[in-house]
């Protein structure tokens, strides 16, 4: 018989889906990083330059990745915390957010920042993790 840790016993059933979603976010992030590396070669942008003075297209690829990184820690935190109460809903919402980030990047990669419009699906995925206000106007966290 396998001994389980107290942490394992404390996690809700279905929390594995949350962990898989978090692992999926690593692959989405790596995909974006690889695309930045390819764009560096294509547009001749050398390190340590973060952006190009000459290539709007490179800047769009870089910005899509940078923007994702700016919210990454918060995404993982909220995914994990909300997953403690609602693991399956959080995993679906987190996956929806990741799909939105992919669409956001694909739109941005066109070189026209206006094509990021499809990223609004990302915010649907973050809806369940937003603070909710109760009827008496006190902030309550509904996780």
Automatic annotation (TrEMBL):
GO molecular function term, any single one: leukotriene-C4 synthase activity
Catalytic activity: (5S)-hydroperoxy-(6E,8Z,11Z,14Z)-eicosatetraenoate + 2 glutathione = (5S)-hydroxy-(6E,8Z,11Z,14Z)-eicosatetraenoate + glutathione disulfide + H2O; 15-deoxy-Delta(12,14)-prostaglandin J2 + glutathione = 15-deoxy-Delta(12,14)-prostaglandin J2-S-(R)-glutathione; leukotriene C4 = leukotriene A4 + glutathione
GO cellular component term, pick one: nuclear envelope
Pathway terms, separated by semicolons: Lipid metabolism; arachidonate metabolism; Lipid metabolism; leukotriene C4 biosynthesis
Main localization (coarse): mitochondrion
SUPFAM superfamilies linked to this entry: MAPEG domain-like (SSF161084)
Record-given protein name: Glutathione S-transferase 3, mitochondrial
């Amino acid at each position: 018989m396998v001994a389980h840790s107290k942490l394992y016993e404390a996690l809700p059933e279905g929390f594995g889906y949350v962990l898989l979603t978090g692992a999926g976010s690593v692959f989405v992030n790596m995909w974006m990083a690889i695309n930045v590396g390819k764009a560096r070669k294509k547009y001749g942008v050398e390190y340590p330059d973060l952006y190009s003075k000459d290539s709007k297209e490179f800047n769009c690829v870089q910005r899509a990745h940078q923007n994702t990184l700016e919210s990454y820690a918060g995404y993982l935190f909220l995914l994990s915390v909300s997953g403690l109460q609602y693991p399956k809903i959080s995993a679906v919402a987190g996956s929806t957010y990741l799909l939105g980030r992919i669409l956001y990047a694909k739109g941005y990669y066109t070189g026209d920042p206006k094509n990021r419009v499809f990223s609004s699906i990302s915010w649907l995925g973050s809806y369940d993790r937003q603070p909710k206000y109760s009827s008496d106007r006190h902030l309550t966290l509904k996780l």
